[in-house]
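Question:
When you can, review this sequence-structure pair and walk me through the tokens.
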Amino acid sequence: MMTRLDDRPWKLLRAGGMGRLSAMIRIARLLTPDSDAAFPAWQGMQYIRDMASGRGKLSPLDNARYGKTDWTSAKAVLAPTV
């Protein structure tokens, strides 16, 4: 989709699995133990790991409370950024 929108070649990059990400989080926490940042980099990494692993799943979901919603295509979301 991005190649068609941007006329540049795009491809997926596999950065590693959950084990590698968990190791990177441990390293980042060791390197920034006393950070004053409200949201240190390792916290964002933990969020991505937990969402991708399924740990962050809310149950039960109550999707009906928002009413009917139409899907937006990936092209419609990505096109304005190009």
In short: Residues 17-32+39-56 form one domain. Helices lie at 2-6, 18-31, 41-53, 74-78. The two ends are 11 Å apart (CA to CA).
